[in-house]
Amino acid sequence: MDYRERRKAQARQTEQAILQAAMELSHEDSFDRISIRDICRRAGITTGAFYHHFKSKEDMLVRGFASLDVYMERALMGHEKDDPVERLWLLLSSYAGFMEEEGHELVARYYVHRLSNPSFESMDPSRFTHRAMLECLRQTRDLGLLMPGKSPEWVADFLFRHFRGVAIDWILHQGSYPLLPKLEQDYQFFAQIFQRTA
């Protein structure tokens, strides 16, 4: 590994340490009460290093949620040949796992940021999570398991809207219930509808 690659790897490790520290602290106290200095102390870095990677706490928050696709890609690794319905559930359960790891307060702050920035991209179709879901749904269509009259694109949009709504309900209840069983219940309900109408 040459010097440039080592620097890139070191920068990634520092960013991850900052994000991990912020997530840990947000489980202990309100995000508003956590200072950049607190995050730096927990991550073992200087405030200068923080500002080298992030402009602000809000910037750190938004960039932290960009790692959702990396999280999803890791979760699906090795499952490329699995049944598409099982793979779709793995995708949705990994989404719940990511949200629960981040914690309801950080997820809430992320959505507040999105709502206050109308130009913010909702779900870029080129992102891994969107592409993986569409691939699963196209395969279920090819197997004759998708609801007749509905395209994989329509179902993907519907599922994203529904499960985003479930995440917001979880936020409104301040994470007082586990997210995964709720998503599983809804997913099983949708799976029954698809099978009955196929």
UniProtKB/TrEMBL annotation:
Keywords: DNA-binding. Residues 35-54 bind DNA. InterPro entries: DNA-bd_HTH_TetR-type_CS, Homeodomain-like_sf, HTH-type_TetR-like_transc_reg, HTH_TetR, Tet_transcr_reg_TetR-rel_C_sf. The keyword Isomerase does not apply. It comes from the Bacteria. Residues 12-72 form the HTH tetR-type domain. The keyword DNA-binding applies. Gene3D superfamilies: Tetracycline Repressor, domain 2 (1.10.357.10). Pfam families: TetR_N. This is TetR/AcrR family transcriptional regulator. It comes from Pseudoflavonifractor intestinihominis. The lineage of its organism: Bacteria, Bacillati, Bacillota, Clostridia, Eubacteriales.
